Amino acid sequence: MDYSQFLAMKQEIGLLIVFLLVFLYDTFMPKKALNATAGFTCVVFAIYTLVSFCCLSACETVSAFSGMYTTGPVMSTIKNILNVGVLIVLIQATQWANSEFQIMRRGEFYELLLLTLFGMYLMISARHFLLFVIGLESASLPLAAMVAFDKQHYESHEAAIKYILTAVFSSAVFMMGLSFVYGLTGSLYFTDIYAGIGAEHSVMLIMALAFVISGIGFKLSLVPFHLWTADVYQGAPTSVTSYLSVISKGAAAFAFLVILVQAFGLAYSQVWEWMLYALIILTITVGNLFAIRQRNMKRFLAFSSVSQAGYIMLGVIAFNTTGLASMMYYILVYIFSNLAAFGVIGAIENATGKVNMDDYNGLYKTNPKLSFAMMLAMFSLAGIPPFAGFFSKFFIFTGAIQQGSTAIYVLVLIALINTIISLYYYLLVVKAMFINTENECVIPTFRSSCSERLGLWITVAGILLLGIVSFFYNSILSMTSSGGIMIDL
Amino acid sequence: MELTMLYYLIPSLFMFCCGVYGFVTRKNMIAILISLELMLNAVDINFVVFNRYLFPGNMEGMFFTLFAIAIAAAETALAIAIIINIFRVASDIDVREINKMKF
Amino acid sequence: MFDNILIYFVVIPVLMLAGVALCKNVKQIRAVAVVGSLALTALSVYLLLDYLHLRHVGATAQMLYTGSWAWFTPLNINLSVGVDGISIAMILLSSIILLTGSFASWTIAQPKEFFLWLILLSTGVFGFFISIDLFTMFMFYEVALIPMYLLIGVWGSGNKNYSAMKLTLMLMGGSAFLMLGLIGIYYHSAPEGQPLTWNLLEIARNGAISENWQLFLFPMTFVGFGVLGAMFPFHTWSPDGHASAPTAVSMLHAGVLMKLGGYGCFRVAIYLMPYAANELAWIFLILTGISVVYGAFSACVQTDLKYINAYSSVSHCGLVLFAILMLNTTAMSGAIMQMLSHGLMTALFFALIGMIYGRTHTRDIRQMGGLMQIMPYLAVCYVIAGMASLGLPGLSGFVAEMTIFVGSFQQGMTDYLAGAGSLRLVFTIIACCSIVITAVYILRVVGKLLLGPVYDDHHRELTDATWWERLSTATLIICVAAIGCFPNFFINLIKFTFSPEIFSVLNFTQHSGIASVLGMN
Amino acid sequence: MDVTLPIIILALPLFMFLFLGLLGKYMSHRLAGILGTAGMGITLICAYTVAFTYFFSGNPDFINAEGERLQQIVFNVTWLQFTPSLVLRLGFLIDPISSMMLVVITTISFMVHLYSNGYMRDHHGVWEKGFQRFYAFLSLFSFSMLGLVVATNIFQMYIFWELVGASSYLLIGFYYTKPSAVSASKKAFIVTRFADLGFLIGILILSFYAGTFDFTHLTSVAVEGLNHVYQVSEGTAQNILSIFANNPASTFMGASVLTWALVLIFMGGMGKSAMMPLHIWLPDAMEGPTPVSALIHAATMVVAGVYLVARLFPLYLMETAALDIIVVVGALTAFYAAMVACVQVDIKRVLAFSTISQIAFMMVSLGVARPEFHHGLGYMASMFHLFTHAMFKALLFLCAGALIHAIGSNDYTAMHGLRKYMPITHVTFLIGCLAIAGIIPFAGFFSKDEILTACFGHSIFWYIWMSCVAGLTAFYMFRLYFLIFWWKEHKVHDPHHAPHDQPWTMTLPLVILAVVSCFAGFVPFGNLVTWNGHPMFESVSFLTNLENLDWSVAAISLTVAVVAILIAMKMYKTENELPAKMRNALPALWDWCYHRFYWDELYMFITHRIIFGLVCKPIAWFDRHIIDGTMDSFATLTNKASWSIRGLQSGNVQTYVWIYLIGVILLGSITAICLI
């Protein structure tokens, strides 16, 4: 066997190095140096992100291990996008990780986080279901541990157990589906499956496909596989929640697209389009309907992220390069918007321990900057120009409609009408902060830690610039349309 | 008499269904974990059987099974750990009591 | 890029935003707002004169000052700008109302945030009027919509939360349809094989939207813009919204923002989809025709000053869309005149109402009376505004309405004689009736509010207008009178666009749509 | 003709309006009054010059070789271009009637300006509040009215038509603190607005078919066509009428389009000239200051309707159906108004109803005018009566103003026997009464006599009808006269404040107008104003009108008038029981007349009960509850849905898994079913 093939996995290796550095630092450094773990991780990871970003231009499509693993411009781009997100999460988590409860375990937090990221890399690059499953599991199991991180909070444990049980269940269902796919096609290579499944629709294969989709839909928290989301988001530590809500979603969405395109490509496109129509409509609508009532900010954002996942799936169903690019762009923008929101929530939670929307009443009077950042995040999530969210939404709709069928027009119309509902509940937050004043215990004016402020500044800058500055979208789109995974469309 | 694939698939499917049934009916979380194990093992059987009967040429199914077993073990370990935590906090492992966060 | 004058209509507001953000005290904020809006006004006046000069020396392009800068190249999205007489008229209107609006909100609470949002809103408005690229148009359109929520929610009065949310959601609902329509247009903007485009002019030149697609996309866009144009039955945001909004916001919203609706219907829906416009005109004719009289009748029994004006806006803006749907040069230019006239007039109304409310702290006409003796200046201005609104010659309302009626009647008779049904004729006459109803509710208000004995003796101590209030109202009155006295100037300004080769919908002589559907022969 | 004078005529009043309106409150009352009067005086001089040049200069622009008077457009600027053909111009047209109107308007307006200097201040010389505003409005009205009469096209006329409506609104509501004045002004504006709606639609129809607004075009086509019709042959009429005839829609609901257009336009005239049933605003309009009543609601604005019909007279001749309608409306109104005038107590109301009745006379006489009878005598008579009536009715109103100013009340019951105290007013008022009663040689006699002659020539029935009305006129005017100046001695509480004649500013106009009323009848109108410009008489002398009288008609009308006056004298000269007796004899009739046949109550019912109660309120309710309710219901439904599905998120892992499983199976199976 040719070990040089490992060299193809540049980013994975880079990530492993970061992981090892953090691990060694955490293990062998003297006690007092441990206070710097968080900073150390951030710095190292920032360096890694920068490097991998610079390598992006030099990156060309290579596949290793007889095609089990493939990386290319598009894959490295999405990985870089995830890196940026993770970096922001790390920065925002610093304050929380340094709080006295976590002081002993913060090293583990970073190590687990990096491991899950590694798993997501594998999910993205996998072209063989074995590798994919490994990636999937190593992306989800450590998360359970991270969700359970707040030992002193009961909610944390409840969230963890709900997460692990449903996760294992869904992976069982997923692998069941896989076993049938294997039985029908005789291979676990995407390309072989693509070749193996005939044009005719067999019930068994359709069921198998449904099982597989459910497995990934679970990670994307598509309705009806989303039920864990709200509880887990609410129970988990805010940093973990933000990580869950953006990074794993992004990775899963991309992997989903890869599987659908490469394994169940054209021959079965009709089948999974049917399923996706149903799933998307359900996801957007139910997510919105649940979000309307929520008072707990984290739970609220959980449901909003459910409906956002629906919008992300529009990029998948578009089934073309514009759709792919729009999806990646959407993920990027979504990372920034959502992390801005979670950054504010985390800052307030760390300072005052309040997470309810009613506690935010009159926030603008006391903490104008924070509420301003929160408002930008909300507007961006709601898709209000000139913030990035507007562009991502517009482009993902454009990409979807490019597919051109009448059904897609109906779908997009439903999605658009749902944006009104979503606008409603995003405005509720703005209303609480800017308009509502009746609040006996207003959140006092406080100065959030510099790490939190740094994170917020980054995200706000992203929200303001990602849309107006057309460079990001243009480069993504040019990259996707010039090769990448869509070649065989 | 000669054993066809069906003789293995039907039990594995049965196991899977038992697992699902156990998951949704048992109160005790340990029991639920066992049901999950049943489901995963059903998957393993499927892979092995398909590999053995349909595609004896390569070993993909077998390898997948090996990895799946490992993953299952990891999951169980993690789940047990969390359950113990819960037991510490709530001194109870009835899954139906674990519903403080809802709606 | 910055050699194009139009860009500065977006640049100046952005600079104003930065300026206000940096301001320390209210004086500086006022200064920034006034200086900025003065600059915008001056710029638009210069634009107007220069445009007329260019036309005079023989510029024949449909849009002048066109410029296009690549933005999202892979999707053919450019930042394309360009104006014709109509856009210039609208820009002029917007700048004047922004100026007077900033005077009208001289003593607003939390001035910094207020002006930030107000200027953001006007940025959207100006951007919308200068852009000829559907994407940027839509973007600026939504930029203009959303600050409304906070402006009403924070600075509003009465049932403000409900109104603000309702207004925002209804308008966003409209823009949801609009977005679908625009994307649909984009994908049919060019014949097979040629690159797609968002550019209005190119789309119109290609004329590649098939008839069936037009029939699907026209309602989307027309309703989308029509919601903002307060088209029946999507007008209900307007009464509540205007009633709760602070003065300057009502001014800008009724004065300018509602014009975005009419302008969009005219510039996008009708201009790009002539076939569908011709086929489906009858549906929207009925709706808008209804809203003309409906709004007027509803206004007759309201007791809240702002509700009265909101409903009269429904009636007048309904007339705008109504005239646009006549698909005939005269009526369409009348519609543009009506937009201008209504913009200034209703801004004046809301300014005055705000000033009166600021003194009496009630808007219920049953709680007031004889204000003419107490605050003569405001009262006289109110009478003038009322006269403009009921179409007194010499003020703007008259010319606009008369142009519309003459044009509509011509079109109606042409249809009728061509055997294309009498729908247009009937609804023209119905619309004419609105001038009587308007007189009724205007005089009712004037009589109850300004004339007669003083109702509440506490009002006797109230003061008349301050200098900034006088400035803002006087400016508006002068503009109203200017339009009313020299209408032909404005008609000449806008008439260039209405040539059949530019506006292909004018080529349709047989309005078969109505006949075939209603069978009125 | 050079444009300076016409421009001054229009511009000066407008300037005075702006000047006094904007700067009025910074100047003293007296100065404002003087300025306003002076401005009007200059306008008067200009107008006279223009009129006299037109009539008597013999300039070939104005009168051609065979003595036919021509229309001339002094200037005509494009104001608003609707379509290439339909252009709205503002211009200055002089022809017989417009010149005549210039004279009338400026004369009366000047008199009123002068008069108001005295009237608008109380006995102690304290000026009315808003005196400057009053003069500003007067100037505005004069401007609008002048613009109306010199209009070169029907749309210009409509513009100034609206403007006079507005200025009349402002002037009626001059005492804006009086609720009655406010509601009166509102009523006047809305009623006339409603009439103008008809006018507007009429204009639209006319302009659509004729392709122009211009009077010169419209009428000249018609005039020459009619000359053909009535003198040459029937055949050529067709091609003239054909502009209205050559299309499928030329008839609509049985009447020709032209009829519709003309009747609708006449509706506008009905509104302004207070023809039944649109007359209800005029009596209430007396809430305004008396000089305003004299200027607007007696002499000038209310005859705008007559002027409009006269202006379009050739077109009306093409559709005599419209003319017949005018006759009926006019005759009914005349009789109705005369009846009502007989029992009113408020002297201004009596005069108002007599105005309605007299305008109806003019309308009738226009309606009965036909070229084949005395070259359209009726047209000339109507214009003649317009002229004379303006003079003596203004006189009467100004007298009434003097009386009211002296007594401080509108009721004759507060007056009685004032002849000794106010001799000048007494004499002038008497002259006015004689004039309107049609006693030779006062102005009214000639004009009314021409009208009756015209009626006689048209149909005997209308002749008798109108003669009765003339008798009634004489009766109620002298009833008023006797009740004010005789009946019984005036009770004076203290001799220091005995009623007396008013200052010269008020008496001078009375005297002037009285003199005019005495001699206006001798103006040879037949040579100045005819429907097609052809003079009626060859030779003109001071006695032309006397020579050309139709003595049979004149004798009858004179006797009728005299008899009526005698009856009035019998009844009202000295205090007696006769009026009370008669009133008790016919109580129902008296009630109906006194309550003006309950027209106002009817209108109140229609507007308040029907329009407000059954249209506006339901619509407003519908909007709030149905339309808005639907919009809100979307929101509430969404909310309900959100609450109803909350159970899905039960918090129990096992249900989560159930839903998951069901989801997967449904997803797969439904897809499978759909696709296979």
Query: Mean of residue pLDDT of chain D?
Result: 85
CATH architect. name of chain B: Orthogonal Bundle
What would you call the quaternary organization? Answer: heterotetramer
Terminus-to-terminus distance of chain D: 94 Å
The amount of helix of chain B comes to over 70%
Strand order across the largest sheet of chain D: 1-2
Biggest beta-sheet profile of chain B: none
Question: Can you walk me through this structure?
Answer:
The complex is a heterotetramer of chains A (489), B (103), C (521) and D (676). Chain A has 489 residues and is mainly α. Chain A has one domain (3-488). Chain A is built from 19 helices and two strands. Chain A starts with 9 loop residues before the first helix and ends in an 8-residue tail after the last helix. By secondary structure, chain B is mainly alpha-helical. Chain B has helices at 6-25, 29-53, 60-90. Chain C has 521 residues and is mainly α. Chain C has one domain (5-516). Chain C is 72% helix and 3% strand. In chain C, helix 7 (160-187) crosses helix 10 (237-244) and helix 16 (376-389) runs parallel beside helix 19 (467-485). The longest helix of chain C is centred in the middle third of the chain and has 32 residues, at 329-360. With 676 residues, chain D is mostly helical. Chain D has 27 helices and four strands. Chain D has helices at residues 4-23, 29-56, 96-119, 131-149, 154-172, 179-210, 215-232, 235-245, 257-272, 281-284, 290-299, 304-311, 313-318, 320-341, 347-368, 377-407, 423-437, 443-458, 460-485, 504-519, 525-528, 544-547, 551-572, 578-585, 587-594, 599-644, 653-675; strands at 72-81, 87-94, 251-252, 255-256. Chains in contact: A-B, A-C, A-D, B-D, C-D. At the C-D interface, helix 7, helix 12, helix 17, helix 18 and helix 20 of C face strand 1, helix 5, helix 6 and helix 26 of D.
Topology:
The complex is a heterotetramer of chains A (489), B (103), C (521) and D (676).
Chain B: H1 6-25, H2 29-53, H3 60-90
Helix pairs in contact in B: 1-2, 2-3
Chain C: H1 8-22, H2 26-56, E1 64-72, E2 77-83, H3 85-104, H4 111-130, H5 134-145, H6 147-155, H7 160-187, H8 200-206, H9 211-228, H10 237-244, H11 247-272, H12 274-301, H13 305-324, H14 329-360, H15 371-374, H16 376-389, H17 396-417, H18 423-450, H19 467-485, H20 487-495, H21 512-518
Antiparallel strand pairs in C: 1-2
Helix pairs in contact in C: 1-2, 1-4, 2-3, 2-4, 3-4, 3-11, 3-14, 3-19, 4-5, 4-6, 4-11, 5-7, 6-7, 7-9, 7-10, 9-11, 9-12, 10-13, 11-12, 11-13, 11-14, 12-13, 12-18, 13-14, 13-18, 14-16, 14-17, 14-19, 14-20, 16-18, 16-19, 17-18, 17-19
Chain D: H1 4-23, H2 29-56, E1 72-81, E2 87-94, H3 96-119, H4 131-149, H5 154-172, H6 179-210, H7 215-232, H8 235-245, E3 251-252, E4 255-256, H9 257-272, H10 281-284, H11 290-299, H12 304-311, H13 313-318, H14 320-341, H15 347-368, H16 377-407, H17 423-437, H18 443-458, H19 460-485, H20 504-519, H21 525-528, H22 544-547, H23 551-572, H24 578-585, H25 587-594, H26 599-644, H27 653-675
Helix pairs in contact in D: 1-2, 1-4, 2-3, 2-4, 3-4, 3-11, 3-16, 3-20, 4-5, 5-6, 6-9, 7-8, 9-12, 9-14, 11-15, 11-16, 14-15, 14-19, 15-16, 15-18, 15-19, 16-17, 16-18, 16-20, 17-19, 17-20, 18-19, 18-23, 19-23
